[in-house]
Each structure stands twice: as C-alpha cells, then as structure tokens.
C-alpha cells in the first residue's frame, strides 16, 4: 500500500486557487491562497470544513486537473428534472456515444445502456423508477440518481461534493460502500465527521481557505475535527452564510447581494439553494454582477428604494417634457358619435357579418403559422445570439419595425396574399424569439451542464442538459407570443389581409358600429377562450386547418421582388450616382427633428402612462382582491383593453378630446398598461399571501406590490420598446411622428422615402432599446421572460 | 428536396399559365358594406360579357390598389383621379377607358362644424384661417388633392400646414364627416357624392355640420386597364371591356359605384389632375 501512495495524482505546491481569471490569467477572487496538498493513488480522502471554507473550490480544481480520469458527483446533484432517471444516469457516458446515438436515445433508450443503467439502479434502490422524471423524485432518491450517474461513468477516481448529504446515516454508509467498491481513489466532501474518521483513510480539513488538517484518519480524533467548526452561531465573517438556510425566500437574495462584496463569490451553495428555490431565484443569481466588482456605490441601498427612485425619475422626466407635448383638448359634441359606438357595442349586429367564420379562421391561421415560422427562423438564431454581434444587430433591426410596416413592405411584392401576412409576422417574430429564447437558455440552471463528463459533444450537451431545463419556459413564451400574434393578425387586416381586422376596420371607419361591435365581441371571445381552443393537443389540428385556410401557396414573382429590393426602395439619384440629386432628395425628406422628438416624447409618455394604468388595474384581475364577480369583470376589462386595436382606442379618444398627442398617449397607455396588468395579475396569483387579515389596501401596498414591482418594472422596460414601435402607427391622428411620414411615403408610393424613414425608425428603436437595457435597474430582473 | 421545390414551382407556373383569370379592384372610398358581395355581381357581369374568368380583389387603401395594378395582380381597376394617374404612370401603356357620367364634373365640399359660425358661400371665407381642417385619405383626389388645389388658388398658394391651426388626414370620407360633426375638427374636405349619400340616409346631422363651399368641377374616377390586355386576353379585349361598361344599365350594378351610367374617358382627360399633383409634390 505504501508504495502505491508514493505516486501523487495531483499535487499543489503553494498555489492560489479561486474563481474566474482575467486577461492576464490572474484570479478574480482567491479562495484558497497558497495551498500545498497532494492526492495519491489509492487514497480515500474525506474533505471537511464549514460551508464557504473552500471545499467546492478545491474539488473543482481537482476535477479540472484529473479530467477524464475522475467521475464527478456535484453538490445538489445537478440533475435535469424534466428527464427520466434513465437519461440522467446515461449522461455519465454521454461522450462515449455519437451525437446521433445520443439523440436517438432520447426518443428510444439504447438497449445496452438501458440494461447497464437498470442493473446499477437496482443496486441503488431505484429499481422501477427508470422512466420517472427526476423532478418527481424525493430528495434522497435524487441523491442516489446523482451517485448512479457518477458510478455509471466507470472511472477509477471518484470526486464527490457532499454526495451523501441528503440521505440518512444508514443509507450514507451503503452508498459510500458502493462508491468504495467501484473506485480505487476518492475525494469526498462531507459534513459527517464520524463518517470521515471511520470510513476514510485520510482527512483534509479546510478552514477559511486554509488547509488546517491533512492527516491519516487513524491519527485523528473527533475533537481534532471540531477545530474546523468554530461556534456555528457566530457571525463567522462570511456573508455567504446568509444563504445557507435550506430554503431562503427569493426576497432574501437582494439583501445578501446588497452587502459589500468582500468575498462575493457566488458559491455553489448559493447556486444550489437557488436551484431549490426555483427558477426565479436562479435567474436572479445568473444576473448577479460579476463577483469582485464593487463599483456601484449604491449597492448598499435597499431594492425598494432604488426602484422607487428609478420610477420617480422616469415620471419626473415625463412631467418635465410634458410642456413640449401637444396636449390640447378640443371637445365639442362627441356624444352623438360616442353614443352610436356604445349602441354598436351593446347591440352587435351578428346577422350582418360577412363570413365571420372564415375571417376568424384566417386570423388564427395567420397567427399560428406566423408564430411557427417565427420559431423555426428564430430558434437557430437564438443559439448564435450570444456569440454573434451580427445576429444580435440583425434581430434588433427586424424587431424594430412594426408588423404593420413589414406588411406594407411585403404587400408591394407579394400582393394581398397569405405570404405577405406570414412574412410580416414571421420576420419580426424571428428577431423577438431569437432574443428571448437566448435569454431563457442563458438563464437556465448551469449545474447539470457542469456535471456532464468532459468531452460531451456540443449537440448532446444541448439536448440533454440545456434544452430540457429551458423547455417549459420556451413553450410558455411561445404560447404568450401566439396571443400577441393573434392581435397582430387582426391588425394586418387593416392593410388589407382578409383577417378579422379587415372587416373590423372597414365597419368602424364607415361608422357601421353595430357590425364593428359584433366583430370586436368576436375577437374578445376569441382571446378570452384561448386557453381552451389553444390547448396543446389542438395545436396540430389548428395547424392543419390553418394551412388549408391559407390556401395554395401563391406564386412569387421573382422579377417584382428584385425590382423592389434593387430599385424601389433606393433613391433614384443614389442608383444613378448623382450626388447633387441625392442632396436634393434628402432636402425633400420631411423634417426629421420634430418627427423624432414627437416619437420619443410619445414613447416616454406612453411608457409612464402604461405604468400608471398597470398599477391601477392589476388588482382587478387578481385572486387576492374582490370577489368572483368583480374579478370576472376585471378580467373582461383587461381582455377588452388589450385586445382592442390601439388605432380604435385612439379614434375614440380623438372624438372625445380632439386632435393632439393626447388621444395617442391615452390609447398607448391603456393598451399597454392593460397588457402589463394582465401579466402582473397572473404573477400575483402565483404568490401566496403570508400576512392574513390585512385589509385590501395593506395587501396591495405592503405585501404584494413590493414583491411584484421589480418584475413589473422589468416588463415596462421591455414594453417601452414595443410602445415606441407602436407610436409609429398612430400617425393618423395628425401627430407628426416618424410613422406618420412612413405612412405618407407608402401612400405616395415613394418607397425610397418610406424605406429611409424605416431605417431611421429602426435605428431609433435600437438606440432606445440599448439605453433602456443600460438604465434598467438590476433589481428588476426579467423574472419570467415568458411574460413579455 | 430540390426536385420537390422545382416540381412545386413548375406546378404553380403551369397553373398560372393555364387559366389566366382577369382580375379587377376598386379603391375603397364608398360604402363598403357587403362590398365583396356587390362587386362579385360586377365580376359576374364582366365574366358574361368578356368570356373569361373574372375575379374581384378587395383592397384596403388607394396605394394598395395602385400597387396591385402595378404588380399585375389586377389588370383593371376603378381608380380615383390621382390614383389613376399614379397607376398609369407606373404602368406605361395602360389606358383610362370609362368614367361615371358624374365624373367629368366631380366636386368636393368643404364642410364646417356649426360652432365655427360659417355659412355657405361662393368662395372660401377668410375666417377659416387658424381653424383646424381634416382632409380624407392623403391620396384621395376629392378628399385631398383638389380641395388643397382650390384652397391654394384662393389663398395665394398658402401652405395648409401653416394656414390652418392643425391639419389632419382622417383616412376616409365617412370619417371626415363624423369627425367634423363631432366638432373634433372645425373643417373638413369631402367627396360630394359621399356627403349627399350620407345626408340622404340621415347618417349626418345637418344642424351640426354644413357645407360651406363647393369646389369647381374637375374630372375624377375612372376605369383603367393595363396596356397588355389585348395580348393576353385576345384581340379587341380592351374594346370589349370598354363596351361592357358603357352598356352597363343594371341599376343594381351601377349602384355599386354609385353612378348613373358610364361614359367614355381617355388619359388626356386627367392631365389637370396630374399637373396639380405634381405641383403639390404628390407625384415625381
């Protein structure tokens, strides 16, 4: 035995260990300074020390140096909850199969591995659970799955970070025996001191980043080990202890983060705790600024204060700029017309509708196929999103142009065909999907990916340890987008595609309000009943039915397309190389300064207005307030406000208040505020009130709002981008926004002018988006990207 | 995969070549209730007269009608004065075939809310300065182009944006009437047939909104056909289309436009419109 132990597998000679490296290879934070240590073959080492003493850092370093020689069982398992026990265990040998075999294995388990995993699981007391998703197992069972995955790797070395922390002592012994039987050398981090002495050859003891014990276990007594654990109640000077309790609430986090980041290492423990606390918390963690930077002087402030300050600054800016906005009111005799509208809504003329079923069908068909095409285009882009600046810029560009303007562009080429509608939806949606999918994937817990054995292929890693973790959120977001697509599909009717909006706009424009009322009610019902008819199982039916309705694929005239992209959208002078002519062309472009000013002002006012509306309206639809009837009415109101096209809301206010920026502002604020309120109410319903007996006002102000507000503000910042895009389509009010002139360009068939202004709009949107991302307080993480 | 795509493309091409359908559209500026149904009857009539398959393509805006015509998605269109000019410029060889009997002397009305205190007069009164005005659609001949032209004539080529306190584009004649009736705008410029129809139907309260001035007559709406129609649909097709309109005597069909009858027209008739549009920078 002694001769074997002479050969060190790994040795550290006064080395610094820690996290993160800068460009010069220096550690960002040193956890274990000047460590001297050697691991010999055949040794069974117990690694002891308090949380935060550096155990995980040491194990991570050992893992890196041992590479493929060591099997690895991470702290808090790093399992994929959505996948079956079999697949989680199988991941131990992911690099040993081809990517294709790994893919197929997800569909249908490979025979050989299945038998091996089955045998292994039987030994671990997991028999009969192979097909069960890990998410439905108990804590102890998960522990055993994690060990099974490590054993399945079949290495001579075993590295485990508290692999027996969540099982009873009897189980722990059995598991350690199993590990013993299959590995010659092991390093296991533990909390059970007795086990360390009875079961291991050697003990390494860490305290505050120093190796204080490195001795054979037979030479040690329990009392020697107590030195590693100073009084557990003492503050211990480690801020990380704040996160030690098994289940810190998500609220606990900002406080922990708010402390001076002296040793602000996001420990595995925190990540683990976050995993247990649920996705919201792990997302919050992933947004944790890089450790070791203390550059934000305001970090010490409380989250609530910061957000309040932020909001007030936004409101103050809006108030300050308000004098520049044209908010005149000219009310004279709007009541007759408004009365006609009200009558139209109250007594909808169902009978006078022209083929309403086809219109509904087409609306749904365009929405569902447009969304699908957006997903198909956007998903691959999402994978490149973080890596390619080009992809990010391209996505920002296509997102920045309103669906309606895309439709107007495609209309010039594809005419009034399904292709125009689908492209007008799919292209901006691809940009949105790319961005949001990339965010969701980025925010998925990394532990399972880190737990994979080295050498796992990129594709295998993605389908096993990344996609399943993000899947639920990806699906939820796609569903939410589909509702947006339905609204957009209606809006496309306004430019002539025969969806519900086609008839709605005509009837409304010509004052046939009974007919418009019927169409609006139809649309409200369509949106309100979405959870039923949009059920997962009905999606294939909708797709097939939609394809049939969209009809035969229209023939595309390549010459038209070419003429459009090569001639129509460029100034003739530019194509002719006539620079003087180009200057003349530029001088005829409408004054951009006021147009941009109006657009930005309306965007800002709309955003602040939407916040006010959302704050007022969300309780109406939340289960924490009112009774069944009031909630039903509240939900109905929110459906109506968010589904009524902004153009129609704007027209209503135009009648009421006269032509100015005001109707546009109100329309934007109500529409977007109702949308945010709906999402916030949904979020609120997921919260459990913890303070019974509060009056409604107390529940609102003291209990729910503080928990909801960060998410609400994040939503608002995202929505600001949308609001800015929407200002463009309210040009009909005579408010000279950029959109007003773009529409003019299309009307006069001056596509070069329209295209130029679209480029300006896109650039403006991108700039505002970048600014809002920079200004957005970090305390307002997008907790649930699915709700945007 | 490539073969499949090729086959699909060929199939589409073959389909397009085998059954050439004659398509037409109409600018959306009249009562559009049951539009498809009414125009389907016009399509049936033309099908009977021309012996080819005829289809009506509904559009939502003046520019969409012009674009469809330019892109050969429709071969025939019922245009306004300006949209017709735009279309014929974009598709060289296309010809104006017919117009309504009312269209050689079309008019626009300036209407005003009663609170302005304006009365019907023989000329636009000076008092309209600094009031607010809404046109209809930006490219409407009767709702924008000619009213602006006559306004400029009267006020020494003043820019409406500077002359009026506020200028809007309601997008539609019916909407112009509704908005001026509600007092949202002081003044409006509107197509006279739409106004007369609204008054006749009782859809407008003439105590609140009244005509203050009628413009001099000008040529407006017309049927325009692409120049390659004879080539594609047979010798003499253009003449047959023209004859079909001139001989249309079913009141129900004529009511779709709404016109008493159709009379011959030609491109030269619309030269004044073209001139005015160029002056106002709507054409280049």
TrEMBL record, chain A:
Domain ABC transporter, first and last residues per copy: 12-233
Keywords: ATP-binding, Cell membrane, Membrane, Nucleotide-binding, Transmembrane, Transmembrane helix, Transport
InterPro entries in the record: AAA+_ATPase, ABC_transporter-like_ATP-bd, ABC_transporter-like_CS, MetI-like, MetI-like_sf, P-loop_NTPase
A Pfam family it matches: ABC_tran
Domain ABC transmembrane type-1: 360-532
Lipid bilayer topology: Multi-pass membrane protein
Molecular functions per Gene Ontology: ATP binding; ATP hydrolysis activity
CDD domains the record matches: TM_PBP2
Superkingdom, natural source: Bacteria
Location relative to the cell: Cell membrane
GO CC, one annotated term: plasma membrane
Key word Transmembrane present: yes
Family matches, as PANTHER family: ABC TRANSPORT SYSTEM PERMEASE PROTEIN P69, PHOSPHONATES TRANSPORT SYSTEM PERMEASE PROTEIN
Name by which UniProt lists this protein: ABC-type phosphate/phosphonate transport system permease subunit/ABC-type phosphate/phosphonate transport system ATPase subunit
Organism: Halomonas campaniensis
Organism phylogeny: Bacteria, Pseudomonadati, Pseudomonadota, Gammaproteobacteria, Oceanospirillales
Automatic annotation (TrEMBL), chain B:
Keyword Ion transport among record annotations: no
Keywords, ordered alphabetically: Signal
One of the GO BP terms on file: transmembrane transport
GO cellular component term of the entry, any: ATP-binding cassette (ABC) transporter complex
Signal peptide stretch: 1-19
Gene3D superfamilies associated with the record: Periplasmic binding protein-like II
Source domain of life: Bacteria
Recorded family membership: Belongs to the phosphate/phosphite/phosphonate binding protein family.
Full protein name: Phosphonate transport system substrate-binding protein
């Amino acid at each position: 035995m002694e001769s074997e132990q002479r050969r060190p597998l790994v040795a550290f000679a006064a080395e610094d260990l820690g996290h993160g490296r800068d460009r010069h290879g220096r550690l960002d934070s040193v956890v274990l300074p000047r460590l001297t240590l050697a691991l010999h073959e055949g040794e069974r080492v117990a690694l002891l020390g308090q949380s935060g003493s550096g155990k995980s850092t040491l194990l991570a370093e050992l893992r890196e140096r041992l590479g493929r020689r060591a099997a690895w069982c991470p702290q808090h398992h790093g399992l994929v909850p959505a996948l079956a026990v079999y697949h989680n265990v199988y991941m131990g040998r992911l690099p040993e199969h081809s990517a294709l075999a790994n893919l197929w294995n997800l569909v249908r388990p490979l025979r050989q591995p299945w038998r091996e995993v089955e045998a292994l699981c039987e030994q671990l007391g997991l028999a009969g659970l192979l097909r069960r998703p890990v998410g439905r197992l108990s804590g102890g069972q998960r522990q055993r799955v994690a060990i099974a995955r490590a054993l399945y790797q079949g290495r001579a070395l075993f590295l485990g970070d508290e692999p027996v922390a969540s099982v009873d002592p009897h189980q722990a012994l059995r598991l350690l025996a199993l590990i013993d039987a299959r590995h010659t050398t092991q390093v296991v981090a533990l909390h059970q001191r007795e086990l360390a002495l009875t079961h291991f050859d050697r003990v390494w003891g860490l305290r505050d980043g120093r190796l204080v014990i490195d001795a054979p276990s037979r030479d040690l007594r329990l009392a020697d080990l107590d030195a590693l654990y100073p009084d557990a109640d003492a503050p211990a000077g480690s801020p990380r202890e704040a996160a030690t309790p098994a289940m810190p609430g998500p609220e606990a986090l900002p406080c922990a983060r708010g402390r001076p980041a002296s040793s602000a290492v996001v420990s595995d423990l925190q990540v683990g705790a976050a995993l247990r606390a649920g996705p919201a918390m792990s997302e919050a963690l992933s947004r944790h600024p890089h450790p070791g930077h203390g550059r934000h002087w305001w970090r010490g402030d409380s989250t609530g204060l910061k957000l309040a300050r932020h909001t007030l600054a936004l409101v103050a800016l809006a108030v300050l700029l308000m004098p520049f906005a044209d908010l005149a009111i000219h009310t004279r005799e709007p009541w007759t017309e408004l009365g006609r509208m009200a009558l139209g809504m109250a007594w909808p003329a169902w009978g006078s509708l022209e083929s309403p079923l086809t219109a509904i069908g087409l609306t749904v068909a365009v929405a569902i196929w447009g969304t699908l095409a957006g997903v198909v285009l956007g998903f691959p882009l999402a994978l490149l999103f973080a890596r390619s600046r080009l992809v990010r810029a391209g996505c920002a560009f296509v997102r920045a142009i309103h669906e309606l303007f895309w439709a107007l562009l495609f209309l010039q080429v594809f005419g009034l065909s399904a292709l125009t509608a689908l492209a007008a939806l799919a292209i901006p949606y691809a940009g949105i999907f790319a961005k949001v999918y990339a965010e969701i994937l980025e925010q998925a817990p990394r532990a399972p990916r880190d737990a994979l054995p080295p050498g796992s292929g990129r594709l295998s890693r993605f389908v096993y340890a990344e996609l399943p973790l993000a899947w639920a959120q990806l699906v939820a977001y796609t569903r939410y987008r589909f509702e947006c697509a339905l609204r957009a599909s209606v809006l496309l009717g306004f430019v002539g595609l025969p969806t519900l909006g086609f008839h709605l706009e005509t009837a409304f424009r010509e004052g046939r309000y009974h007919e418009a009322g019927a169409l609006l009610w139809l649309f409200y019902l369509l949106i309100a009943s979405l959870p039923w008819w949009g059920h997962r199982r009905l999606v294939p039916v909708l797709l097939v039915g939609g394809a049939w309705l969209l009809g035969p694929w229209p023939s595309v005239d390549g010459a038209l397309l070419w003429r459009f992209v090569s001639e129509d959208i460029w100034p003739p002078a530019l194509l002719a190389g006539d620079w003087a002519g180009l200057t003349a062309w530029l001088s005829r472009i409408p004054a951009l300064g006021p147009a941009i000013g109006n657009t930005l002002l309306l965007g800002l006012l709309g955003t602040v207005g939407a916040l006010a509306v959302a704050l007022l309206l969300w309780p109406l639809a939340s289960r924490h307030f009112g009774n069944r009837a009031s909630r039903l009415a509240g939900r109905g109101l929110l459906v109506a406000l968010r589904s009524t096209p902004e153009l129609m809301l704007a027209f209503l206010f135009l009648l009421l208040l006269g032509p100015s920026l005001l109707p546009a502002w109100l329309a934007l604020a109500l529409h977007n505020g109702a949308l945010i309120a709906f999402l916030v109410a949904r979020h609120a319903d997921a919260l459990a009130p913890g303070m019974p007996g509060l009056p409604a006002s107390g529940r609102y102000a003291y209990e729910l709002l503080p928990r909801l507000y960060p998410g609400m503000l994040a939503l608002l910042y995202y929505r600001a981008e949308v609001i800015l895009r929407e200002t463009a389509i309210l040009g009909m009010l005579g408010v000279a926004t950029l959109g007003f002139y773009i529409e003019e360009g299309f009307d006069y068939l001056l596509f070069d002018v329209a295209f130029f202004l679209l480029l300006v709009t896109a650039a403006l949107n991108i700039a505002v988006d970048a600014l809002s991302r920079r200004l957005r307080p970090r305390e307002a993480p997008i907790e649930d990207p699915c709700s945007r | 995969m490539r073969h499949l795509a090729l086959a699909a493309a060929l199939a589409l091409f073959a389909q397009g070549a085998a059954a050439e359908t004659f398509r037409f559209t109409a600018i959306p500026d009249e009562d559009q209730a049951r539009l498809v149904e009414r125009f389907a009857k016009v399509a049936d009539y033309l099908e009977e007269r021309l012996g080819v398959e005829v289809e009506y393509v509904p559009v939502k805006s003046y520019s969409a009608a012009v674009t469809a015509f330019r892109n050969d998605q429709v071969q025939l269109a019922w245009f306004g004065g300006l949209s017709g000019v735009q279309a014929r410029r974009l598709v060289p060889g296309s010809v104006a075939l017919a117009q309504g009997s009312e269209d050689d002397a079309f008019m626009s009305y300036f209407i005003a809310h009663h609170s302005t205190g304006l009365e019907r007069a023989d000329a636009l009164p000076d008092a309209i300065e600094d009031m607010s005005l809404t046109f209809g659609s930006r490219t409407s001949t009767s709702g924008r182009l000619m009213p602006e032209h006559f306004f400029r004539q009267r006020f020494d080529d003043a820019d409406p944006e500077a002359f009026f306190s506020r200028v809007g584009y309601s997008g539609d004649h019916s909407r112009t009437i509704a908005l001026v009736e509600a007092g949202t705008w002081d003044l409006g410029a509107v197509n006279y047939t739409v106004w007369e129809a609204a008054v006749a139907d009782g859809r407008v309260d003439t105590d609140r909104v009244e005509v203050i001035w009628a413009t001099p007559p000008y040529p407006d709406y017309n049927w325009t056909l692409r120049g390659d129609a004879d080539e594609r649909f047979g010798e003499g097709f253009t003449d047959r289309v023209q004859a079909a309109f001139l001989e249309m005597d079913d009141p129900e069909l004529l009511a779709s436009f709404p016109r008493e009858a159709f009379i011959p027209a030609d491109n030269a008739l619309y030269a004044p419109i073209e001139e005015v549009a160029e002056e106002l920078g709507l054409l280049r």
